[in-house]
Design brief:
homohexamer, mainly beta, 1 helix
């Protein structure tokens, strides 16, 4: 399988909270991961991001798509 | 700072590719991470996700927000 | 009305499931549709997408915006 | 493969436009499709959506994830 | 027109930067606006959000959909 | 703090509706705001957006990330 996404992170389910329409699942990441972000070049320049900078990568849970083989 | 997001992953910038309007940045994740996903309860049930299941967490790079202190 | 989006698909409501904060609506697509995706050029190349390739277009329900005239 | 998403639409690549960082791909949907949307219950009620209503489903191309087997 | 979205903000185009595949448009918001956010109840509780708290609402430009009548 | 996002809007919490898994928060925008959108160049051209055009900026509540210092 090939995905049109730069982030595909191996993980293991830790807990499941089932709601009426939406549910929340937590995972432990099992492999050392690499991640990628696309942002406007303007944002890149105003943040002045360069190699070795330390950042926090914030992702709303709604944007994480679990895939199970 | 407190973020209204379940995923906040520590990482270090590895490379930057600057485009005309959009840019692509790659990161090494530096800490063992936990992640979370919100999905419909219907999807949860059709995937039959339960603790210890192995999954792939797919995230489009556009949904990853870098924050630098 | 003109929308800043490449996908505008005609559909008919099939069912509604109302939850406390979020609700899930299902639709039948009524017209033959064309769709579009934006992805990183890196993902495009690693997938080696070319005309006539068969793919699955995966979209989380949260990203689908219904508009009613 | 099982996806944590309510929309998985069969399609065929029609054209590819490769940019410096981002690329745009167009598809023909090959099967009659069903789609799903998650929205706030407040939006549902203010739209007064009910079975057989005709709507337009608007999706930004960036939210469409192609998967190729 | 009725939109399945809680945020619909009146604005005027200020500048346009056209790129090869993606473009960036800036707007002045012309009316006093109200905004809404959906987040996990877990995030809400860990942020301890309550009336009159001052916050920053961060939105990636890719999630803003312009509509023109 | 620097964010990899073009929109960072100052606001004050107005109301909170707590659900089982997801919650909805409303805000009053307290400062005159500027906003930005990224869309495909194709969409830009088909909308024929130019300075001084009046538009509606539609954003699903799920894409709004509150940050509290």
């Amino acid at each position: 399988m090939k995905y049109g996404a730069r982030n595909a992170i191996k993980a293991k389910v830790k807990s499941v909270k089932k709601g009426d329409v939406m549910s929340l699942v937590k995972f432990d990441v099992t492999d050392p991961a690499e991640m990628a972000s696309v942002l406007t070049t303007e944002s890149l320049e105003s943040m002045d991001l360069k190699p070795n900078d330390e950042v926090l990568l914030v992702v709303k849970a709604i944007h994480v798509l679990p895939v199970k083989e």
